[in-house]
Specification:
The radius of gyration is 48 Å and the shape is elongated. It contains six helices and 30 strands. About 10% of the residues lie in helices and about 45% in strands. The N and C termini lie far apart (about 145 Å). It is mainly β and about 450 residues long. The protein folds into six domains: about 80 residues, Ubiquitin-like (UB roll) (Roll); about 60 residues, Roll (Ubiquitin-like (UB roll)); about 55 residues, Ubiquitin-like (UB roll); about 55 residues, Ubiquitin-like (UB roll); about 70 residues, Single Sheet (Resuscitation-promoting factor rpfb fold); about 120 residues, Barwin-like endoglucanases (Beta Barrel), CATH 2.40.40. The longest helix has 21 residues. The protein has a six-stranded mixed barrel.
């Protein structure tokens, strides 16, 4: 046998002796599993052997630290991590997994989530920090609340901060804004912080309300007198009033006075104005008026309501009770006869039977006050072009097809409806095609030309 072979045999024998010695050693091992910590003495060589020694079985998703096949050393600590169903609600999504991992940073990394400034993690409604291990439980429900911006107007200043608190009140409390009785917070303290919010906080102040000889003291953040009275259960009744009035701001000294009011009623007489009506006078020319019957005022008996404050009269109101002498209605006539006249307008001789000053504007299919070409056809079905005019709906109903002549425009007839101008009751909208459109915005004299229509438009009468 060669010397080299002898040396190899010696080394192998030594290694075998050492291995047998290692296997025969007793080892103290601490096992942390299922909420218990147990220290055992074992001949097991690996972590798995130690667990088998105490009868601990691992589920499909359970894990152990150190690894199952790791060699044991004396004093080793073995930790069994039981798998749990873990779910996390975040950003409108639900993340799930079955894992023995209890370290939040690792779980968040596995879900590709990160915490921003002010964000918080909740476990069963309780805040947990990133460094806090999750409990050993079979089911863990987590929630990631993202921080939103809270803007608070308070005492003339604006405060802006991030918060992931569930409600506005809790967010303010975390910033040392403690709410007190009577404080006014808009929106209210129970408002959910699921998005950024702007809030206003008004601190309650002492308010003294005087009613006769009585005094009431409350603490309120009411901005108006009426609000303060309502909070105190002293809202005004009947003819009562307050100083300052209910719609006024609460005065800086917090002093409000409620005044009680009484009334007395007596009878009095008053004049009843007569009415005036118009009717057709066939003998008078259109545009003229006549007096058919003179009017006369009537007399009625009325109640006089006298209001007293602190025994002194402050107002007197009369209320009609019954008619003593009936008023006589004044009847005025308006002419309906027509006289055909001629005149020269724009160098053209025209025949007309009436005139009317009207405010003139203009439009075309693509120039009608909107962004689209919507008005190619008039309300009457006639294509919009020069000679087609629009006016108010009720005027069109009375004058559809009635022809006219406008200086600077020419002849035309009413066929369309437009929006008009509330302050200009006499209004005409002159139609054009898009190619020949001319802008109008002025008062003109409209000549109503022959032939005279069978029914005269009512707006030509006085």
């Amino acid at each position: 046998m060669t010397p080299a072979r002898i040396r190899w045999l010696a080394a192998g024998s030594a290694l075998l002796v050492l291995l047998l010695g290692y296997l025969s050693l007793n080892r103290a091992v601490t096992i942390v599993a299922d909420g218990r910590t147990t220290t055992i003495i074992t001949h097991a060589v690996t972590v798995g052997g130690a667990l088998q020694h105490v009868g601990i079985q691992l589920g499909p998703k359970d894990s152990v630290d150190p690894f199952w096949f790791s060699l044991l050393s004396d004093g080793a600590v073995v930790e069994v991590k039981r798998a749990a169903r873990i779910q996390l609600r975040a950003d409108g999504n639900l993340y799930k997994q079955v894992s023995g991992e209890r370290r939040l940073p690792i779980l968040l990394a596995q879900w590709e989530l990160s915490l921003g400034a002010g964000d918080r993690l909740l476990l069963a409604g309780r805040s947990v920090s990133l460094g806090e291990p999750l409990p050993d439980a079979p089911f863990l429900a987590l929630e990631l609340r993202r921080a939103v911006t809270v803007t608070l107007d308070y005492a003339g200043e604006t405060f802006r901060f991030l918060s992931s608190a569930p409600t506005l009140g809790e967010a303010l409390a975390e910033q040392s804004f403690v709410l007190q009785a009577g404080d006014k917070l808009e929106p209210n303290a129970e408002s959910s912080l699921d998005k950024s919010v702007s809030a206003t906080l008004q601190r309650a102040a002492p308010i003294t309300i005087r009613i006769g000889a009585q005094r009431f003291r409350i603490f309120s953040a009411a901005a108006r007198v009426g609000e303060a009275l309502a909070e105190a259960g002293l809202s005004l009744q009947g003819l009562d009033y307050s100083e300052p009035p209910p719609d006024q701001a609460v005065p800086s000294d917090g002093a409000i006075r409620v005044v009680r009011v009484s009334e007395a009623v007596s009878l009095a007489q008053e004049i009843v104005p007569h009415e005036t009506v118009w009717q057709v006078d066939p003998d008078a020319e259109i545009g003229s008026s006549t007096v058919i019957q003179a009017g006369q005022d009537g007399v009625s008996s009325s109640r006089v309501r006298v209001r007293y404050q602190d025994g002194e009269e402050i107002s007197r109101v009369e209320e009609a009770l019954r008619l003593l002498v009936a008023p006589l209605t004044a009847i005025n006539g308006y002419g309906s006869a027509f006289t055909i006249r001629t005149t020269v307008v724009d160098g053209v001789e025209i025949e007309y039977w009436a005139t009317l000053d009207m405010y003139a504007t203009s439009y075309s299919p693509c120039r009608s006050g909107v962004d689209q070409c919507l008005y190619g056809t008039s309300t009457s079905g006639v294509s919009v072009a020069k000679g087609v005019a629009a006016t108010y709906k009720d005027w069109l109903l009375a004058a559809r097809g009635v022809i006219f002549y406008v200086p600077g425009y020419g002849p035309g007839a009413f066929y369309d409806v437009g929006g008009g101008f509330p302050d200009n009751r006499a209004w005409i909208d002159l139609g054009y095609s898009d190619e020949d459109w001319v802008g109008w915005s002025q008062w003109v004299t409209v000549y109503f030309t022959t032939p005279v229509p069978a029914v005269v438009p009512y707006f030509l009468y006085p």
